[in-house]
Amino acid sequence: MILVDSVTKKYPGDAKPALDSVSLHIEPNEFAFLVGKSGAGKSTFIKMITKEEIPDSGKIIVGGIDLDYVKKRHIPSYRRRLGVVFQDFKLLPRRTVYENVAFALEIAGMSGKEIRKTVPKVLELVDLLDQAKKFPSQLSGGQQQRVSIARSVARQPKILIADEPTANLDKLTTQEIIDLLKKINDFGTTILVSTHDESIVNTLQKRVITLADGKIVNDQKNNGIYKLDATPVPKESRTLQTPGHALKTKRKVM
Ligand code: ADP
Known about the structure:
Elements: E1 2-9, E2 19-26, E3 31-35, H1 42-49, E4 57-62, E5 65-66, H2 75-80, E6 82-86, H3 97-107, H4 112-125, H5 141-153, E7 159-163, H6 171-186, E8 190-194, H7 198-204, E9 207-212, E10 215-220, H8 245-248, H9 250-253
Parallel strand pairs: 3-8, 3-9, 6-7, 7-8
Antiparallel strand pairs: 1-2, 1-4, 4-5, 9-10
Helix pairs in contact: 3-4, 3-5, 5-6
The chain binds adenosine-5'-diphosphate.
């Protein structure tokens, strides 16, 4: 579903690459956490997937689309195929909850009739139907993040990417957001979440990919726990990362 093969990215002026020959394969319907200290390369990795940044070398294929062939003018429509959730929500302040979700669907070309049918369903999913007429400023941080998630999943993307979605939320609200992402994953959406929140990673026990200095130092397939170094993890929860492994398996999974 997400295939990254030997990707290297160095920003101009930096001494070291932000990503250093990273290879990774996230399978359909997987829920994966991307963890690592500040500066490890998490945001850069996510920006590679959303094509906000372009790798210096390596290959990225997302949902069968080879990002090398997504031209600049097609990037917005490529991004609309993904659900992307940000830590600062990025809601439109002068639009209501309902309008924020409806607007995303309008841009995606959905008819008015379909929009009127879809928005209430999605707001129900995130438990915000009763807040539909409010503006973002009238909501709590957790509620705003739920609107943002509603907006991202309204078009039923196969992949949802979230960059530190709980960074601005308290512990209880964080748990609510993670529960919601888990529910969306249970419906069949592949999810990649970057975070430095140890408690949510350990509670969920899903796949945990650890970045340090732009390299993957750990990839625990199941029952992953939060750890920031390369000390060994139990054998049964480890996946093999061999160069080129990801690309060899691509045809089977797309
Ligand atoms: P994380 O999300 O794990 O905190 P980042 O991907 O933001 O890590 O950063 C990885 C490295 O790349 C850091 O050394 C950071 O300073 C550098 N970096 C990130 N964005 C830029 C940029 N736009 N220009 C130059 N260097 C950058």
